Amino acid sequence: MIKLENLTKYFGQSAVVKKASAEFEKGKVTSIIGPNGAGKSTLLSMASRLVGKDEGQVFIDCKEIAEWDSKELAKRLAVLRQANSITMRFTVREMISFGRFPYSQGKLTEQDQIIINQAIEYLDLVAIQHKYLDELSGGQRQLAFIAMVIAQDTDYVFLDEPLNNLDIKHSLQIMRNVGRLAREMNKAVVVVIHDINFAACYSDKIIALKKGQIVVQGDVESVIQADVLESIYETPFNIIERDGKRMCTYY
């Protein structure tokens, strides 16, 4: 389990995240929602040591994150950031192989190749594994990046806005695979996401931020409520149920 205790981050005199506490459990998908500027990505960055925290603690399996050796941390926690600009020309397979770097340090073993093959097959990328990333659609590239995270083979996976600029087909494909990662591979998957309906359909737990504070967290039923969402987003919501899933409509 990853446990966050009173995480706080200041930019200048302003606290962009204030005393945020939460837990990320293996086998579950946790979505982080909230308006733009709420502190979602900053919270995830502090939880993964990509950004330093000003106050509070992060515990990974009961050990404070500052005490983890970087190489060992990379074997426990994988992070896919919001912006992934690649300047060099790589094939899908070459990109996915970077996920094995914490183990192989660039010298791929037979076992590394087996895990890379498994990640490629898991996301159905066999047919395009030798294509270059610049030859792919945005959705295909994003699947390749997620396959790289799968190849890293960590207990904890952080995905910062993985659906940005994707069409509905690739968004669905990614969210379904996010669920599989948690339930079939017993990983704790944490997703920063703007689409509330995707969060409602594919999450086990939702954390909502507003102005740097966690204002509500819990299961889908307790968070996806019209009055709760209206207080977070300051806009009217209507909640409907379809096939046992809660969905939001706006008006």
Automatic annotation (TrEMBL):
Any GO MF annotation of the entry: ATP hydrolysis activity
Q: Which residues form a coiled coil?
A: none
Matching InterPro entries, A to Z? AAA+_ATPase (IPR003593), ABC_transporter-like_ATP-bd (IPR003439), ABC_transporter-like_CS (IPR017871), P-loop_NTPase (IPR027417), Siderophore_ABC-ATPase (IPR051535)
Q: Name one GO cellular component term.
A: plasma membrane
Q: Which residues form the ABC transporter domain?
A: 2-236
A family per Pfam: ABC_tran
Any single biological process term in GO: iron ion transport
Q: Which family does it belong to?
A: Belongs to the ABC transporter superfamily.
Q: Give compartment(s).
A: Cell membrane
Q: How does it sit in the membrane?
A: Peripheral membrane protein
Q: Which organism is it from?
A: Vibrio marinisediminis
Which CDD domains does the annotation name? Answer: ABC_Iron-Siderophores_B12_Hemin
Q: Which UniProt keywords apply?
A: ATP-binding, Cell membrane, Ion transport, Iron, Iron transport, Membrane, Nucleotide-binding, Transport
- Protein name listed in UniProt: ATP-binding cassette domain-containing protein
